[in-house]
Every structure is written in structure tokens, then in C-alpha cells.
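On to our target:
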Amino acid sequence: MGLLSIGTPLEWKNIKKYAYQIRKRGVRQFINIHRKIKDRKNDCLKWGDEVEFILVKFDHKNKRCQLLLKANQLLPILQGPENRDEKCLTLWRPEYANFMVEGTPGEPYQHNISFFNRVEANMSLRRKQVQEILGDNEFIMSVTAFPMMGDPNFTFPSHPTTPGKGISQSLFFSDQAIQDCHPRYHCLTRNIRERRKRKVVINVPIFVDENTPRPFIEDLTQYGDDEKSDTESKLAAKLDHIYLDASGFGMGCCCLQMTFQAQSLEEARHLYDQLTPLTPIMLALSASSPIWRGYLADIDCRWNILSGACDDRTLEELGEEPLKENVRKIKKSRYGTIDSYLSEENQKFNDLEFEKDDELCKDLIENGIDGPLA
């Protein structure tokens, strides 16, 4: 993640008029970088992991567990050695929610097989470093999706939601749960909602057994008294589904991520293609989020929830209204699966249609970028 250290991020209404120019400049920047490094070879293969952790507080007396809104207090302590230019075995970064922290190794691992022996110890050290500065009955955990996230009073301290106003305008997810030590997250949440011109809509199929009401219809009026928000939520919620209405439900999930630096551009494209069929298998093997807002779901993977949480498409781009303000329909969220293989030898496997900007694609090809990469 690129950290914004100075300046103020723009709201969508101000970004909108510059959006295409930003895209054009981004393509131009890519062309300049590609021209500079396209023939570079023999860089050292490097790799590393990022683990997102959640913070929880246990109330043993009342048999209750809540997400602990304390990351903004812990991060200055965890980042202290790095800020003092000390050699660090671990590095720490803010994440979307104030109940999350992200830890990485202090420097990348390299291609030698001996580096595999360092991974588990470093992950263990990260957990230990956070646990040592937590209070009584406070713990760091590796949980993909907190089962009661979005339930009333799911955070400690507890904060009321603000349906119809504020950043997310959610019935279930309070704005105070969003990390406030970095301006990116508030702005990202607001801009997704403003670009969509409505709240985020995520419907997770409910698990049906003999005790499940049929149809399953939740009374959403108990969560808010804002008439506009109540009406919007009622129209968005589907029968037999768990309704989620905030970006925090996806970006408040945790995962393990891997980053690679290949020795050349050619190797990077080959590695990308080789990982493509492996990643959905790994996603299925690591699926661990069967509960949302306290309801048992008929799915157990977070990916579609994350994708929906960052889906900023308008109704026109979804194909639900005729195109007027927007250029084209877009078939999936920007947090979506990949569309194509990148290496020349794997083009025979590309059998999906995908949207592209013809003008920008033409600019790339005319400046020496081959078709698959363009």
C-alpha cells in the first residue's frame, strides 16, 4: 500500500473531472518505466508476506468478545524502531479498520531455500510484539472475518452507527471503527459510496436448515431511523440473504498476502501466469469465513464480500440503467479476478472477453508495449 504522508486526498466530486487525465498520465508513466527497465535482467528474486491481524477484547464475566479499537494507539509503539532507523526484524503498517494491524518481515526474503526457515519464526515474533503491549484480556488473532462484525456493539469501545449520514452511512458498521490515523481509509470509503451514488450492497446467501425461517427476511428498521437509509436498505436486501452495507465488511477482513520481485519482466509475467490457476485453489483451501453479522452463511470464503465492499460501479455501469453519464458497462468490481494471462506463450488460454480503453491501449502498443501486456 502506498502511504500518503502529506496532503489531503480529494473527494470523488473533485476527482471526477480529472479522472481520465489521471488515467492517461498513469499510462504514460508506465510507458516511461517500461522503456527504462524492459531489458533489465538478473535482479535477485525476492519475496515476502503481509499478515493482517485483528485485535479482540474478551469479557469473560459476560461471555462476550468484541473487536478492540486500539490500532491507532499501538502503531506508534510498533513503528518506533523503524522511525528511529534501527534494524528491524518486523515492520508495521496501518490497515483499514482500527481493530487491525498489518505486519511484515523487516526486509524481503531471498531466493535461497534457507529463507523458508525464517518465515514461521518471524510470523510468531510479530504476534509476540503486539501481544506484549496489549492489556488484560486483549489479544491479537489471525481471524479472517470476525463472526459478529456488524452486530450491535461489536466493537470496544462501542459506537453508534449513523445511517444516512457520515462516511459509510451504514446500518451496522460505525465510522469510528475505520482507522483514522491515515486519511486514505475515510476518503476511500466515502468515494466508493459517492461514485456509486448509493451505499455498498453485499448480499450473502443464508445457510438454510430446519430452523431457518423461509423466506429469511430481516427487519432492518431496528438498526436505524433514517427514512432514506431504511428505504435504500430495504430495496437492496435480498430474500434469504444476509445484508451488508459498508466497505468495512470486506476491508475489515484479514488475510495473508504474498509479494514477489522477479529477476526480470519476462520472469515476472511467467510467474504471474503460473500463480493464476493456483490462487483459486489456495483460496478454497483457506476459506474460513462462514459467519457474517452473527448469521451462518451458505458460503465460507471472504472474496466476494471483499469484491462487493469495493465495488464502486454505478447502476449504468452495472447495466441496470441506460448509459448516460458513463462510457461503458463494467462486468465486475475493481476488486475482481484477473481476466487474462500475460505471457505470449499462454495467449491460447485467453478465452474471456474483457473491457479495454481503445485509446489508451493503442497508445501503449504504439510505444512498444506488446499486445498481451497492453
